[in-house]
Amino acid sequence: QFLYFIDPSNMTSAGERPLSPRSKEYLERAERCFELQLSEQKIEAQKKLVRMQKREETPSILYRGIRAIFSAQVDIFYHYTEIVGLENLPPEGNAAILCPNHGNSLTDAVVCVSQTPRLVRLTAKDTLFKLPFFGWFVRNLGTVPLQRADEHVEGVDNKAAVTELNQTLLDGAMVCLFPEGRSRFHWGVSEVRRGVASIAYSCLAEAKKAGKTNYTLSLVPSAFNYLHREKFRSGLVVEYAPPVVLTPESEFMSLEKRDAINEISNQLQDLMSLTAFNAEDWNTMRIAHTARNIFAPLGTRVTLAEHVKLTKYWCNALSVNDSQDTTLREDLTKYQDKLDSICIKHQRVARPRDSSLWLVWCMFLRVLQLIILIPISILAILLWSPIFYVCKQQEAAVMKRTKKATHVDEVAQYKLLTGFVGLPATVFTISLAVVWAFSFPWMSMTWLLPLVALFMWLSVRFIEDTFASLRSLRSLYTLFHLSNEEHKAITDTIKTLFTRLEARAKLCGNITPPDPPVKRGWWFEVISKFDPRRRRKKDWNECLRLYDVIPVDHVALQRERSSSAVLEEAKKDK
After folding, report:
1. Which residues neighbour 445 within 8 Å (Cβ) at sequence distance 6 or greater?
2. For 52-107, where are the E strands, in sequence order?
3. Rounded to two decimals, what is the model's pTM?
């Protein structure tokens, strides 16, 4: 009908008749229908764009499976993992760059994928993509390959990678980039390179060129704070700091490109230094733990995040030069050396001295615990022994071939890889042996496999309790043989150091020790002590060792490697 009444012969022109009223009515109706159709098409196109972005943000089934595997690895290897600052992560659809510290090699990537709720795209050196098994994981995580200058002598060409990263960020995705570049086993945050700032600047420049005035890019300083990064059943705190929100209309975009990149990098350096552990050297990190124990002797009555926060504070406070107390660092070092020489922790000697009869009673209780725990633990250790043996062999191989202490960051990744392959193989082998030994039908493997896996998980709990009882028995025995004069001298040193630490705290920021949490009933203590998921530690620095691990036990390693390097240079000169 529309075509019939709107015939070209009826159009108004010179010497021809005008449109009839009915034709005008149909023309107006057709124009309204056409406008409505255009608006519907526009709405449908917007919905399609939102669906495409949602599909990009929604993790695939394969990505979810890999993230579940990584989460299981982190939960088994590390005793407790706490996440701080999830509210600082931008919501889905907003472009963001995670900027964490990089001190644990590929373990940092595993932690990033498993502990970040949003889909995260990573970057990795292109040689990892050539590995037969690990390369499959890297590719299916959506990792972008980057070339390194030391691995490509003929020249580095990362233009395609930078273009892909820019497009990913323009689409509103989240990318993880390590501003330090390489992974280093350092005592603090290394110098931030210009790569992250360069990518952020180019992305904002493209957004401005495309007319996206409402586009925002968030740089999220993050920290993976490991208490003992390579030790089994240690602790981990993942912290997300408030983001730095950048727009195409930001002030630094009016600067020269080099000046803008330097300004972003300097700001990122300052924020990362506040978020992660950042000490002058290993000894500063060591005495920072000692200062925290003296200043706030609360143990695990505070959260792991509060424990890390206090340690970071003393890392910074002990790096400040105080003209009134120049010997504080030396006295803290001497005090910690004294504790290490007698193999006892600060928490044991800081309390009033118990009577000898009470110490004997406590040792008797520990022996009773060990009588019950050791038979169970022997079976558990036998089940875990293949994995433990391979992990120690891998650690020894890494320590043997690394010429510097800064390369120890590779130990944890090999342990995780060994557990990933060895744990399912061990569970399957044990189930198969049970079926063969007791002549069970083969269909019983369907319920035997999860049962054996559950027992393997619970056996870690028994091993931890056994090791903790042995450490406690040793400490009680040392305290029993400690004379009253030595104990009094140590407590006097603690009081003196506490007064000096209070003065340093007032100088550096007047921080006060956190209040201890309200004590709950005895029933809660009993239930939490026998929690099957994990053992309740009395000190966050504990890990699966028969001795009390000092906060940083790589000082001797570093000295040994530095002395060996000097000897090698002397031999060369000779």
Report:
1. 431, 432, 435
2. 78-84, 95-100
3. 0.82
CA-nearest of 218, 198, 176 to 262 is: 198
Helices 445-481 and 411-438, packing angle to 10 deg: 120
d(CA 90, CA 27): 49
Find all residues with CB under 8 Å of 468, minimum gap 6, and list them. 535, 537, 538, 542
- Residue 189 amino acid letter: V
- For residue 295, which of 323, 273, 317, 319 has the smallest C-alpha distance? 317
Nearest-angstrom CA–CA distance, 388 and 27: 83
Interatomic CA distance for residues 573 and 442, integer angstroms: 68
Tokens at residue 91, please?
């919501």
Give, for 218, the enclosing helix (H) or strand (E). Answer: strand 217-226
For the chain, 574 residues long, give each residue's pLDDT as a single digit of tens.
344 344 444 444 444 455 666 666 667 776 766 666 656 655 555 554 444 444 445 777 888 888 998 999 999 999 889 999 999 999 988 999 999 999 888 899 999 999 999 999 988 887 777 776 777 777 777 788 887 776 776 777 778 888 888 888 998 999 999 999 888 887 788 889 998 999 999 999 999 888 888 899 999 999 999 988 888 989 999 999 999 999 988 888 888 889 999 999 999 999 999 899 988 888 888 899 999 999 888 777 788 998 999 999 998 888 877 666 778 999 999 999 898 888 888 888 888 888 889 999 999 999 999 999 999 899 889 989 999 999 988 888 887 775 555 567 888 888 998 888 899 999 999 988 888 888 888 778 888 888 998 888 888 888 988 998 999 999 999 999 999 899 999 999 999 999 999 888 888 876 766 666 555 565 665 666 666 666 778 888 888 887 766 655 444 444 444 444 444 555 555 5
How many helices, marked H, and strands, marked E, lie in the chain?
A: 18, 9
Q: Quick check: helix, strand or coil at residue 13? A: coil
